[in-house]
Write a structure and sequence with these properties.
- Four copies of one chain form a homotetramer.
- By secondary structure, chain A is an alpha/beta fold.
- The first copy, chain A, has two domains: about 5-220 and about 365-410, Rossmann fold; about 220-365 and about 420-430, Rossmann fold.
- Chain A is about 35% helix and about 15% strand.
- Chain A contains twelve helices and 19 strands.
- In chain A, the strands form five sheets. A nine-stranded mixed sheet of chain A has the order 3-4-19-18-10-9-6-7-8, sandwiched between helices. In chain A, strands 12-13-11-16 form a four-stranded parallel sheet, with helices on both faces.
- Chains A, B, C, D: One of its GO terms (molecular function) is ATP binding.
- Chains A, B, C, D: It is found in: Cytoplasm.
- Chains A, B, C, D: Its cofactor is Mg(2+).
- Chains A, B, C, D: InterPro entries: ATP_PFK (IPR022953), PFKA (IPR050929), Phosphofructokinase_dom (IPR000023), PKF_sf (IPR035966), PyroP-dep_PFK_TP0108 (IPR012004).
Chain lengths: ~450, ~450, ~450, ~450
């Protein structure tokens, strides 16, 4: 990828329609607006720097998000729609609320509608009515998990969606969702572009798994491992409460183990973490089952955290199903481990008690914790700044200490994963004391 | 049952060995000791009173628990054992800690051992070593769920248990467990009695389901519905997050719906509660499935709380299994509902999204909340008072505002249930707005 | 007091206007309505029973609360007002919500108004407008502390209040407040009676201190000591974090130490509890300062919980101020202890570090916990049942396991206190290990 | 400052004594050790990059922390001391535990002592004994706030400290504390250097205020604003519970408003934030008092968050006291605001109710939340890696997404502050809607 791939599109700049003058802000003070052309480096090591200097290459970088002095849209006649798609994730309501408040109070945009139940809400046959959103109607929603707009999974017809946007005279569409949703948002943008409409499409990436590329942290992720932390503590009580007690907690993470890894780093009782990025065997002297048995012989209890996408190599990929969003439905690794352990230890006459805990719905439907609440608010404010300035086909992200803007295609180009030879995984190994490899030998 | 059935046994009173004089208390002040013969009425209505007066019958009543001036055991050479059995329940560690602290600091009993992993810990073949318990070793355990002693299910050989008690020179055995455990404790008492040993057997009833008869509240129960409360709130977010979203939360309650009912009363979002005590049909115009569909047509989301023992009439009782404690393993009513709803609504083409949540292990392994923590401490203190006074074959209970003592046989004579024509269930009906009956018509 | 003092008044029974027939309940099922004349005994010991039988006296008792078949008010034209007075207390919003929902959904009463800012809201000069209350407008309020209606302290002119009630055509007034508020409610009832109006006045007693007589537990009290529990745990960290570290936590309790005592029973780290009901000296070999010093010499940290009304004997009563509600403003015993300790230990050159923590506003403004939430709902439902049946000048209470109804004058006749020679205080002494007396010798 | 100022010192590299070979790790796998010479840029904008390239200057950067292949100390005879100083902060116990576990399990260092009560613990006259630290002794401490080692404020004699380190044969000293502590650590290092001792001094910076320079986040800070979040929510209930209700919450922040700002961003109910970095007037049409009054006239409640160091310009600096650590003791701005508001509004006859809440001790003594818990663990692991590699006079920090190492003098060279013309403060202004300036006009 080159520098240019990271440039965010702007709706026809010539048509700038208004200026964020003192009078359009709630207070007249002049803040330092974002200079359009400053950016933040993706790679920030000194060795990278030296390499870039040597090769005289402009390093790849992200646009920094923030308020712009010149607006593309005139607040007094701008109409905005918000849609939330995909699975629940802590913080969605915070994002909705902050988009509404930022538009209403800071930009004086008063026409905001919520689309019900994801992209379904644009499609006539479902007959979901839009709802008007005001600071009053979203007043307390940040205290609750879920999404007040409702959500759904799966693609809908792009042409009908853009028809509906046109009919509603929408100028800006905020799409809150995961990579399927963002691919949809990009397709919507392309159809808008084809029709030469002046509609900005802004993505606010939602992935509880924290696996969106080029974004160092996604909202709801911290809340997820925070809640998992309590559940793991309790699971530890199950493990120590029985002779050779085993507790298995399955956490979210279809393609990556960020929640599992961070949860294990935040609660020091975990003995084994299994994630999609790692290869491991069940059998063999270094395999999972023997590692577990040795642990039990030594300490008489074991606490295991497993990401839902771990160990999928044990299943025949030909048989893997997909959900309505097109995500592969993982075979249940938790139940698989339960079966295998039971089979093996019963065969050996090795006594044990096993408890299997799957708290996914409890985690994803929780309200955002304080830090995520703050983060959601700032993501939303920056998304509004960018959209009001006419940027489109973008997502708002975060990199190092900056809020950033990225083209949607870049953000969905691939998923972020844990490097099992990198620092994070080393930290997990050091914290849990688990063997660095559980490959058969 | 008559007045005499409620009398607690005392080890040969003639042999009183010491007195709780000022010097054996940490401080010399004379408190009002419990008068041995005051009791608290079981039925406290005025109409009952009048009936008893008319019939000149001594009303049935419980012994009031509390400190006794004359002790049966001499603290300086008393040795105590504590055992915890059955499933986890919030507060077990609090009980252990308070028994230890009360014995150690108030009675100066310094020899206390913990039996590991339930009744297994008495049986040689399991090779579990007793652990010494001191205020230091139990210092922080009340902040954690589970049991530091470990637990197991199922009966063990009574003769071997009493052999071990004799060998360890135990004078008092505290058994913390459910009705299976208490039946075991009673059998231990009988064997002790047969051998003419001076060992007191004290039961501290543990049932997260709150279903012990003649005890108005069992420890851990409030914590259970408190944690369920949060989980139900989050489940509500799942329900409202989808069009015709249904969330089913299965809560503990094998034979009674107390947790389900209290959870529904504490969080006002629940629409339907199903408990073992109620009869209901799936089909028919007033049956569960139609009630649910009408709810969805009207409000487009539904939140259901189901006790694990509800609807067992849908299963063939011949096939019901038992667990190691002899409890009937309920067929999973949650999964049954999920299947039936899916079948019915898919057949009808009625759109819905269903999430099924089973948080049992998360609830039962949590630490006690503040009120349960207080309650556990007082139960333990009263159990120690009674045992030091030589009472045996008893459980410590609570009735109205008093801590009480009951003979073990009385406490396990039958299980407490919700009266579906009584006030509690009426309150649930009023709070949820669910139909008073879901019987087919 | 005699049996008759405990009789609840009813608005002219002859004028019964409607019946809670199946059609006026949401569902036609016949529940067991409350028999008007059953009651629950106040004293429930067997010795009391025998004494009553001997003396042939009808024992004093409370009316049991619950739904009545015959209503006094016709739901379709009944208008209800709710007012909240005095200091904040966890659960007020739950009570408001449940009164509204019970009236609306179960009785089909649709005209409900909220009076703003306590009794001020009835008085023209303050110009506070009533607000309409519906299930929608109170939908989420139970998740929040405080009161959505606002509150104020102090008496207002009774004549103007009844004028306003008349003008608004109110049939039932629910007063949620402490004993000042309830005295006001009684005065309102008397003025109503003088004018021969058919307005029912229902009190829902609110006292975070749990000191209302003849009521075994008031709403918000459990939440209060639950939140205090966490704060005390943290204060313990302050105490152990320094050499001879002292942490003093002041808790609510103007005339009684229930919160302090229950908090100390729920968190086992507390070393000294001081309450209004106990006498203690600062000086002398057994006085507070020496007890504290010995504790520090022995363990090098001390955790003290003090009720705000403790030790008022150290202050000159002539100088005690009253707040707008007429409550005596306690001199700050926490600051007094801090000063005295500092003075004494500095004079002696005894090293120490002292942290003083006053969390009152944090506690009283918190949302109700699960058990209080349940309790508030049931209190409200029972208050509505009684008021709809035409009862007046009553409060809804709780005794042993029953919701009860009491005449307001009885409930405010005196305050409940801890008996320092009784079981609760003995439990505190046993749990903290503090000396039973800190009187000078 | 130049590139060289950011170089971390190493104890005489020639004397490398051991290698972190597979056998000294718990598991033989080779991880990617940190390359000694890679670093991470401090300024990461593209404009900075271009400027550096133009001027051919090596950009300033931090050393990246991580495990080193070659160790300076031989684990089998290394002895380590840990000391905690200054005020409490969430996470200190996590850091202690993780230092111990990392040394013990990963490096096989078995001799670890805890110094009691800060630097006092080194000084003979205080007579505080060191305690041995093992994984068992620190097993559960991460669940609790405070510090198990105890702490104290203030400088102690450096010569005596180094004498004690020598006498105890300490090889590595971990100092957990704020900038006073770190200055002390640097002085200890200098004395060690003067004496030619091979003792590594490692700083783990603790500042709940998050104001250490060149470190983007300090441990405990997130927990602080998380707990503040709940307290602010409750304070909001106080504000809305009264007519013209004002709630003032004072939060920590002696020289910077990070906690206040982040708390306000995480809970959207705050109306006014006051921080040390901002100038504001009490009087004048745009001054604080008028802003507050207009807010009340408009909405009838106001929620104010004030950092303890705000508005110190209102006090005569000549009279400011210092605490034992040499920190200026701020005059209480909260009480000052309370007085001024009361004075002004009473004079004007403007009705109001004001509640002042100071939760500092409750916040700083809380246990670390999940994210801080994780962060503390990783800080500790990285501090151990660096110290075992012979680095000294350093602190472990965090910058963007990397754990870093900095020379102590750099980290204490100045305090970090909020730029009131920068993005964070702009976000606060946008979120609260408060005027960008409250300067008199």
């Amino acid at each position: 990828m080159t520098h240019d791939d990271f440039k965010v599109k702007v709706l026809g700049r010539a048509e700038v329609k208004s200026k964020l003058t003192p009078s359009s802000l709630s207070d007249g003070t002049a803040f330092g607006f974002i200079e359009n052309d400053d950016r933040v480096l993706i790679n920030t090591t000194l060795s990278n720097y030296k390499q870039d200097v040597e090769t005289s290459k402009t390093p790849i970088s992200f646009e920094i998000a923030g308020p712009h002095e010149y607006l593309y849209f005139n607040p007094s006649n701008t109409k905005v729609a918000i849609v939330t798609c995909g699975g629940l994730c802590p913080g969605v309501n915070n994002v909705i609320q902050s988009v509404v408040n930022q538009l209403y109070y800071r930009y004086k945009v008063k026409q905001i509608v919520g689309i019900r139940y994801g992209y379904e809400g644009f499609i006539a046959k479902y007959n979901h009515q839009e709802v008007e959103l005001t600071p009053q109607s979203v007043d307390k929603i940040h205290f609750f998990g879920g999404t007040v707009l409702g959500t759904s999974r799966g693609d809908q017809d792009i042409v009908q969606i853009v028809d509906r946007l046109s009919k509603l005279n929408i100028n800006i569409l905020f799409c809150i969702g995961g990579d399927g949703t963002l691919r949809g948002a990009h397709a919507i943008h392309q159809e808008i572009h084809r029709r030469n409409l002046n509609i900005s499409v802004a993505g606010i990436p939602k992935t509880i798994d924290n696996d969106i590329n080029f974004i160092d942290k996604s909202f709801g992720f911290e809340t997820a491992f925070t809640i998992a932390n309590d559940i793991i503590r309790y699971a530890h009580n199950e493990a120590i409460g029985a002779y050779n007690g085993i507790a298995i907690v399955k956490l979210m993470g279809r393609n990556s183990g960020f929640i599992a890894a961070h949860a294990a780093l935040s609660v020091h009782e975990v003995n084994l973490v299994l994630i999609p990025e790692m290869a491991f065997d069940m059998d063999g002297s270094n395999g999972f089952l023997n590692v577990l048995q040795r642990r039990l012989e030594n300490r008489h209890h074991a606490l295991i955290v497993v990401a839902e996408g771990a160990g999928q190599h044990f299943f025949d990929s030909a048989t893997l199903e997909k959900d309505a969003s097109g995500n592969i439905k993982n075979k249940d690794i938790g139940l698989f481990l339960k079966e295998k352990i039971t089979e093996e230890f019963e065969a050996k006459g090795f006594p044990f008690v096993l408890k299997y805990i799957d708290p996914s719905y409890i985690i994803r439907s929780a309200p955002a914790n304080a830090n995520d609440s703050k983060f959601c608010g700032l993501l939303a404010q920056n998304a509004v700044h960018a959209a009001m300035a006419g940027k489109t086909d973008f997502v708002v992200g975060h990199w190092n200490s900056n809020f950033t803007l990225l083209p949607i295609p870049i953000s969905v180009s691939k998923r972020k994963e844990i490097d099992v030879e990198g620092e994070l995984w080393w930290n997990v190994i050091e914290t849990t004391g688990q063997p660095a490899s559980m490959k058969k030998q």
